[in-house]
Write a structure and sequence with these properties.
- The chain has 9 helices and 2 strands, in the order αααααααβααβ.
- The chain has helices at residues 2-28, 31-38, 42-48, 52-82, 96-108, 110-118, 128-145, 154-174, 178-200; strands at 150-152, 201-203.
- Strands 1-2 form a two-stranded antiparallel ribbon.
- Helix 1 packs across helix 4, helix 1 (2-28) runs parallel beside helix 6 (110-118) and helix 7 crosses helix 8.
Amino acid sequence: MKQDVEYEKRELLIEAAKKEFLEKGYNKASLRSICSAAGVTTGALYFFFENKAQLFAAIVDGPIMGLKKLVAEHFKEDTEYMSKLDSIDDVDMDHTEFSDILMDYIYKYRDSFLLILCASENTVYENCVDEFVDMLEKIVPPMVSSIKGYSYDEYMSHWMAHITIDAVIHVIKHEKDRDIAGKRMSSIMNYLVQGWVELTMIKEK
């Protein structure tokens, strides 16, 4: 019974914190206001979280780490798939399935991702967007080189990494409905995949 009460208090704090951080940003968010909205004392908050940073992390850390794992696993599968191809012409441009998986995950934790994108200034998460761009840049070269006879264009790879992340961010920020977001992202991703192939992969002479 006591564990149930503690769990409920923690969840109330988490939900109140989401609203406070989204409305005011990390810097201006008030722990006192969060406690008031959750209907608990500040002592209860400090029972669960050492400080505001830890409270913010409790909301966003799990989802962001899960997203990184999801993306890494997808590109690992893509690398294995492309290593079996004889030509770039054989690449399957249809990434609708992965787009759906990605949107399902992101929209399950959309509030957490909005916090990272819009309210993470002065936290350890404020550079997450750059981290994902770097992640794509590191993943692409081995994937491209897995097809014999091709190298990659470093500049275009960097540019496409930014464009890809910016496209996902735009959908997350501006579309509340998961189904509509999925339709938008599916078309965008298939377009981007074609861009990655045509702009970053160079046939060696």
